[in-house]
Amino acid sequence: MKITVETVVRAGIGPVWAAWNNPDDIVRWNAASDDWHTTRSRVDLRVGGTFSARMEAKDGSFGFDFEGVYTRIAEHQLIEYAMGDGRTVSVAFVPVADGVIVRETFDAEDEHSAEQQRQGWQAILDRFARHVEAGA
Questions:
Q1: Which residues contact residue 135 at a Cβ distance below 8 angstroms, ignoring those fewer than 6 apart?
Q2: pTM for this predicted structure
Q3: How far apart are alpha carbons 112 and 127 in whole angstroms?
């Protein structure tokens, strides 16, 4: 099953693309809630390149590495990648009159309900939009 989440970021495509792919920005926006954070990030933005973001509960109770390999990149338009478990993700960047629609479509996993996954990915995407709109 595929799940799609999206938001409109009220900024130009340049700042949106940069904040999505810059490790320094990623550690500032990549969390689904205030009790989580990303402690480190690495990005090699090219087909065959890899990325990793270490996501941890702030209380130290749990953490995991969110990792993948880029499979397709069209600058300022699209990023596709495969995660270590074989699931795929597509991130589209669509300029519109009042900003950029960022739309993520991903393969659902089996551990959490589709709604939990949708809510978590949407929360991260909403945090990303607030980060960019605040001027990063």
A1: none
A2: 0.93
A3: 21
Other CB atoms within 10 Å distance of the CB of residue 57 = 14
List the pLDDT tens digit at each of the 136 positions of the chain: 999 999 999 999 999 999 999 999 999 999 989 999 999 999 999 999 999 999 999 998 999 999 999 999 999 999 999 998 999 999 999 999 999 999 999 999 999 999 999 999 999 999 999 999 998 5
User: Residue 2, SS3?
Assistant: strand
And the tokens for 104?
A: 């993520």
Q: Which domains does the chain have, with CATH numbers?
A: 2-133 (3.30.530.20)
HSE toward the beta carbon, residue 124, CA cutoff 13 A:
20
Using only the alpha carbons of the chain, give its radius of gyration.
14
Q: Which of 107, 104, 62 is nearest to 88 (CA)?
A: 107
User: How far is Cα 125 from Cα 79, in angstroms, rounded to an integer?
Assistant: 15
Instruction: Report H helices in the chain.
Output: 13-21, 23-29, 114-133
